[in-house]
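Hi R.,

Here's the input for the arginine complex you asked about:
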Amino acid sequence: MWGGRFESAPDAIMEEINASIGFDQALFQQDIAASKAHVAMLAAGGVVTPADADAISAGLDQVLGEIEGGRFNFSRALEDIHMNVESRLAEIVGPAAGRLHTARSRNDQVAVDFRLWVRDAIDQLDRQLHAVQLALAETAEAHAGSVMPGFTHLQPAQPVTFGHHLLAYVEMLGRDRGRFRDARARMNECPLGAAALAGTSFPIDRDMTARALGFDRPTANSLDSVSDRDFALETLSTIAICATHLSRFAEEIVLWTGPFFGFLRLSDKFSTGSSIMPQKRNPDAAELVRGKTGRMIGALNGLLIVMKGLPLAYSKDMQEDKEGVFDAVHSLSLCLAAVTGMVRDMTPDVDAMRAAASSGYSTATDIADWLVRRLGMPFRQAHHVTGRVVALASARSVGLEQLTLDDLRTIEPAFEQDALEVLAVEQSVASRTSYGGTAPQNVKAQAEGWLARLRGEARG
Ligand code: ARG
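And here is the predicted structure with arginine in place:
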């Protein structure tokens, strides 16, 4: 492709370190689509003849068919997907194929191919995120009133409902989708036509190629077009954040399916056994969702480090942008599918959750609130009085709900019978009606709101 000023072939190691075809063949569809848009534009502007453009376009379709049909021989000597496609095109079309590369460079070619690939990946991940949200929201609606312990510091804090807990993740994933949407909107500008770095002297129509490839507009600066990869970085950072959300949920599945919690059960479809310990049911899928988050965060770090020292415009370092992105997209896609599967598969043990919810003096705050509401006590003082109530229960090794009114009155004589009622976990969650709070009626309304939006999206 550049033999003019070279006399010998590259060293074998040069070829090995230089070649990207092993991974960038994943871009073949995008590469061919972009080439077809480019040659159609060149013909429209009179840069190539309609006959040559038609031949090139038909030849590109043939190459596409060969790759899709597994009949294409990728050659490492041809370095990357761009030269593999063009070289085969030359075999099919003859010398006219050489006109395709007028007014472009592999620098803008790879920039456009990669953007198209990332854009498709975002669309696919968004569909999968929708599926996880739907599974979570449906389960949340069914368990809007199932009481479980809410934790801080992984210690029982206040009772919440299982539906409320699941909807927390629906919110997080909703923001992840928003981040993907933002990244997609920002990246949807077409770099094709920036050529090597400076633009071109040919009369090209960048609006035409941008439109043909579904971009909102062409990029405005040719140097920026070929040298930035912030679209990939933004996508990776969204992937890393989303994976972190999934990882926290996965960690809870690991804890909750274990015998010490016993809140959830996964069926045989999502459990694995041990080769030595017959009693084991391991939540491997959840552990791998948690584990794969490491490589996704790593991909973001990796590309940030590749980019941070590069002067404008293109440097070959940038060829290192793809594998991390491909792997991260694949990993997140797998994790999203696994989480959807586990949510649909899991059976909550509502009795175990309820029993755990009343342990650990989890309704102590409700007593303090009673003192504030009924006796007009300042909250700090109510907190102190309640602390003594908890200490009394603890000294007797009983739960708060086992204390009698007389017990309470040894600490604060003004306690009355209805102070005992706030100790029930159902009463506790039902009272938390503030907007965004865990009261079952709130949770039900939130779940219904999400379900209406998510189902509407699926139809729209
Ligand atoms: N395979 C290269 C990459 O992925 C394509 C661009 C090559 N451009 C160049 N000037 N060598 O970045």
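One thing worth noting: The pocket of arginine is lined by residues 20, 24, 80, 106-107, 110, 314, 316, 318-319 (CB under 6 Å).

Cheers,
M.
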